[in-house]
Amino acid sequence: MTTFNKSLQATAEEATYTLKDLVCYFLKLGSLGFGGPVALVGRMHKDLVEEKEWIAEEEYRQGLALAQLAPGPLAAQLAIYLGYVHYRIIGATAAGIAFVLPSFLMVIALGFAYVSFGGLSWMQAVFYGIGAAVIGIISVGSYKLIRKSVGKDWLLWTIFAVLAVFTFLFEKESISLILIGSVIYCFVRTKPTFLFADGFILLPFFLQAGFYHLSHPLQKLFWFFLKAGAFVFGSGLAIVPFLYGGVVKEYHWLSEQEFLDAVAVAMITPGPVVITVGFIGYLIAGFPGASVAALATFLPCYLFTILPAPYFKRHGNHPAVKALVEGITAGAVGAIAGAVLVLAKRQFTDLISPAIALITIFALLYFKKLQEPFIILVAAALGLLIKRF
């Protein structure tokens, strides 16, 4: 048996769940998980750490910190890391595919309907109700993350507040501020002995040779979406401005309205928000375009997660690393809270939408067994009724 297989076996033996259990969970989350990255990240914590106890709190925090540090969609990266915890590369790959596949198939179906019937006129009405409910869902998710990650530590609260205010004012996340805050926290709370033995992993991308057989338009699609996945930090929503600049302004692949519809599709479907790339790819070049766009977007986040993962697992209990992770987590949660405020500012254009959000918050806090998909369906129906009458 190879060293890798021995390591995989030993790690798998520590798990209280099977690889099949893991795949089934992420298929379900990818099929029913609404609310964007904040809600999905909070849902993974609630399900895998608190209820099922498959993942330890420390392992979850390490995964969240790594997902925040690396470029790409936050929720997908965390899913990949959590799959890696006990089942290594096989688990990471299976979790990532299971999480993304359901929403990818949904946006393909919506893309087919959109092209066949000349647009989705009902989408804005549905999004009106869902968008307000989503604000409530991610607000509750943020609240739970704050309680769990920040606690009563004044320095963590400071890092959290700085990132929340920065994200709200400038409507973007700052990876530099998160890193600065984590380093300060590390030096204040510990006397760090830095671990240089393993060095830092440089991520090689030997990708071009494997895609020379693609037609020229698909090559252009691949490289554009590869850049989108490799150089955009933060939640899936953070990729929207980058996509707009390329898809609408630079290449003129889509019109303004088509792009807005693509973003709305991502919000009304479960799973990662960044799956909007599948819908965009479908509008540009059909199913091949959707497949190339999705693969190119998610490939960098997959590599940026599994390659540093062994370092995080090996040195995660070192006091300096733990302090860095705690600082990064506080900053990440602050950025998420700021993003919630930005979304609320854009969504709340009347008195009805904040009312829907407040009712959603109340329902989730006081009816513990209430599931988000039910809220999404009710909100969608409300949106249609309100906009019609």
Key features of this structure:
389 residues, mainly alpha, disordered N terminus
- Give Rg in angstroms: 21 Å
Indicate the low-confidence ranges by residue numbers: 1-10, 194-213
H/E topology pattern? HHHHHHHHHHHHHHHH
Based on Cα principal axes, name the global outline: globular
Helix content: over 70%
What's the total helix number?
16
Q: What's the β-strand tally?
A: 0
Class by helix and strand content? Answer: mainly alpha
Please report the distance between the alpha carbons of the first and last residues.
68 Å
Strand content: under 5%
Average of the residue pLDDT scores: 79
Number of domains: 1
The biggest beta sheet is recorded as:
none
Describe this structure in words.
With 389 residues, the chain is mainly α. It has one domain. The protein is built from 16 helices and no strands. Helix 1 (3-14) crosses helix 5. The longest helix has 44 residues, at 74-117.
Topology summary:
Elements: H1 3-14, H2 19-32, H3 36-51, H4 57-69, H5 74-117, H6 123-149, H7 154-170, H8 175-189, H9 216-231, H10 239-250, H11 256-268, H12 276-306, H13 309-315, H14 319-347, H15 352-366, H16 372-388
Helix pairs in contact: 1-5, 2-5, 3-5, 3-6, 4-5, 4-14, 5-12, 6-11, 6-14, 6-15, 6-16, 7-8, 7-14, 8-14, 9-10, 9-12, 11-12
Q: Quick gist of this model?
A:
The protein has helices at 3-14, 19-32, 36-51, 57-69, 74-117, 123-149, 154-170, 175-189, 216-231, 239-250, 256-268, 276-306, 309-315, 319-347, 352-366, 372-388. The protein is an all-alpha fold and 389 residues long. It has one domain (3-200, 303-388).
